[in-house]
Specification:
Layout (H helix, E strand, L loop, with lengths): L6 E7 L20 E2 L2 E4 L16 E9 L5 E8 L4 H13 L1 E3 L1 E3 L2 E3 L1 E9 L3
């Protein structure tokens, strides 16, 4: 059963310039004329009932790679909420999200991002 929790999501793109090949194996970072991807389809996670509820503002951190079509090519958990089922629900939702791809010189390119999701149960 899912439980709707308000959440705050922050997309924090890496700020280090990176000039390797524009493939998913070597995503670009902000800098050197590169524009970051923009989230266009957010997916709500199917969160499990947890007793006791997650503490307010318990944050989960993910590393994601957005490919040149705007799909999520890879997503990894970097910091857990402390609840494996919550982490898995967010990871599954992130993998379904869509982005307007990042660009370099007007051409779509792969890009990596760090995403923080802070859960505030009500």
């Amino acid at each position: 059963m899912s439980r709707a929790w308000p959440l705050i999501t922050f997309l924090c793109a890496s700020l280090l310039p990176y000039a390797q090949a524009q493939t998913v194996d070597h995503p670009l970072h902000i800098g050197a004329g590169v524009k970051a991807p923009v989230l266009v389809k957010s997916v709500d996670p199917d969160l499990p009932e947890i007793d006791p509820p997650v503490h307010p503002l318990n944050c989960v951190n993910f590393y994601i790679v957005v490919d040149s079509t705007g799909g999520v090519y890879d997503a990894k958990l970097m910091k857990s909420s402390g609840f494996a089922l919550v982490d898995a629900a967010y990871l599954s939702a992130i993998r379904e999200e869509r982005f307007r791809p990042g660009t370099k010189d007007g051409q779509p390119v792969a890009f990596d991002l760090y995403m923080d999701v802070c859960v505030d149960p009500v």
